[in-house]
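Justification of computing resources. Each target in the renewal requires a structure prediction run like the one illustrated here; the chain below, 303 residues long, is used simply to show the kind of job we budget for.
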Amino acid sequence: MQPAITGTFLDEITHDIPSQNWDDRAWEADFAAMKQAGIDTVILIRAGYKEQATFNSQILQQHIGILPVYTDLVELFLTLAAKYNMTFYFGTYDSGNYWLNGDYQTETDLNKAFCEEFITRYGNHQGFGGWYISHEINTYNDGMMRVYEDLSHHLKQLRDVPILISPYIKGIKQFGQTAISLDKHIKEWESVFARLEGIVDIVAFQDGNVPYQDLPHYLQANQTLASKYRLTSWSNVESFDRDFPFKFPPIDFRKLRYKIEQAEAANIDKLITFEFSHFMSPHSSYPAAQNLYQQYQQWISRR
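Resulting structure tokens:
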């Protein structure tokens, strides 16, 4: 079997898709399914968002006032990652407030303390192998460049492991008439990568915001830019469908296969997805995800 997708986000805390209300045993069953599908990398999409957190953070309790945390998901995910021989990327905290309102320094300082707390509590786990800066951008933003720069330097001092970002394209599927052209996208990300060279290690653009016929051009442009500025290029192959009037069903397998094939044709280094557990898992609450898993497994077994 030649797996195509070898990494997935773990979407807790959920933001715009529903919780599946899994307990520890359900999560372990899903990690086993991920392993069967060829997943070797799991990325916590955010360790906290607004007043929710994945572990009982004293930093967030002090500065934000988080809701009770009944299950330590970070401990659970790190333990399962080690058991199934996966690399775990720790996703940072998204205030949903400070950085969006221009207070970039508060966002950075809060995350520095939060990530220090993570290292103190979980740094000895063998599964931990990367950082994920959860703040997503689609064009050049000087304030966010300062967040990335300052926070990345601090993260490397805490533990010198790869730093991943997963930006999105300001494409027509999400932005309509305010979407930008491919040429503008290239210009914007030339400016971003010029600032992030040597600071961020991996970029995994989300692939769902542009029409399918335009995707190969964006994939090639992203790969070329990343190579120019010495970033490793991954692709975030979205396994949910943006073409429906509601958020968000599992994607049609034919669309998923097309996106995988185009990413491979562009020589992308690694394919990850948002996100296996909801949209591709045999244990998902969506029956269509269970069917997608079967079709995907049948396909990769023939590759």
